[in-house]
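ok new one. same drill as before - structure tokens go in, u give me an amino acid for every spot. 330 of them this time. try not to just spam alanines like last time pls lmao
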């Protein structure tokens, strides 16, 4: 009986260890949620949960695209400025063409332009990497400064808020009791999860990030893959920027300041390797939810904003260290 009991206990411990190794951030997220339910007043209320989901939706839409970029071995530091630019483009078209073609027609035209600009800038960033061997870190850092400047030039440094009636629904409305941006967030997750896991393009992204030379020798157009991941992220940035402009009711060059760091943090917390070749869209979903919960929880607990930055920095470092440890254990 003793041997049988000890064997069952050993099996239980092995199962627990496998779960910890396989789903570390899921377990940490569950523990965090439990802690916040007990310690943060109002955290578990329906209104607050919906507020968290709305907040993480804007971030997550971009983070899913950034996951593909980082898996491919690149990075994009310009997404925060891209969000501001997209919102300003949509707002400018609404302001300039509402009288001529109608409010919603102007918004749709502006969104189409923002989407095209976002994709084109991302795609050209990838090609710039190919043609001139300039790291995307440098190129997107330049765009980080330039795009926010362009956004302010478009608006003249002032918020533009000439939107048609009902435009605020996109970022601030509810559909069947759930914030509308959450539906876009869920669709983006489903689309990116399918793209990365079940398509040849997704397999090529992993191959390029894992070993670029081996991918090239196997016939993969490595630079096209990298350019497309960056272009896709640029397009998703335009979508998020339009939703944020709708939510705040204006296009302004100061929108989404520092958002690029939160996007990258969510991807890293979700287990994607900064060296490329490894990562999951599911992991990024966990990272986004983790960041949203901890930020909301600290606010509800009246933690100083300055301490919130310290905590978030510690979390990013901790996530990187945890992933390194787990890689060695596996």
């Amino acid at each position: 009986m003793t041997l049988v009991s000890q064997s069952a206990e050993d099996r239980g411990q092995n199962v627990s260890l496998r779960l910890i190794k396989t789903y570390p951030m899921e377990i940490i997220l569950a523990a965090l949620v439990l802690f916040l339910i007990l310690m943060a007043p109002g955290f578990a209320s329906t209104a607050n949960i919906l507020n968290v989901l709305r907040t993480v939706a804007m971030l997550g839409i971009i983070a899913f695209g950034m996951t593909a970029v980082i898996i491919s071995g690149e990075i994009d530091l310009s997404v925060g400025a891209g969000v501001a630019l997209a919102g300003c483009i949509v707002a400018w078209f609404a302001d300039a063409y509402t009288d001529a073609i109608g409010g919603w027609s102007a918004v749709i035209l502006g969104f189409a332009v923002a989407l095209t600009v976002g994709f084109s800038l991302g795609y050209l960033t990838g090609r710039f990497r190919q043609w001139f061997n300039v790291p995307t870190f440098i190129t997107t850092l330049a765009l980080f400064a330039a795009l926010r400047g362009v956004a302010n030039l478009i608006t003249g440094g002032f918020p533009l808020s000439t939107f048609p009636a009902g435009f605020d629904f996109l970022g601030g409305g509810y559909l069947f009791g759930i914030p509308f941006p959450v539906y876009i967030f869920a669709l983006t997750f489903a689309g990116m999860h399918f793209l990365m896991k079940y398509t040849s393009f997704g397999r090529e992204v992993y191959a390029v990030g894992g070993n670029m030379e081996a991918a090239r020798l196997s016939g993969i157009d490595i630079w096209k893959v990298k350019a497309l991941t960056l272009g896709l992220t640029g397009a998703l940035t335009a979508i998020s920027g339009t939703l944020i402009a709708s939510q705040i009711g204006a296009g302004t060059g100061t929108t989404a300041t520092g958002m690029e760091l939160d996007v990258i943090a969510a991807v890293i917390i979700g287990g994607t390797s900064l060296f490329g070749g490894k990562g999951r869209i599911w992991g990024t979903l966990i990272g986004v939810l983790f960041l949203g919960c901890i930020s909301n929880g600290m606010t509800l607990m009246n933690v100083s904003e300055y301490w919130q930055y310290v905590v978030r920095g510690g979390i990013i470092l901790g996530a990187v260290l945890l992933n390194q440890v787990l890689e060695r254990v596996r």
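The chain has one domain: 46-329. and btw Residues 65 and 218 are 25 Å apart (CA to CA).
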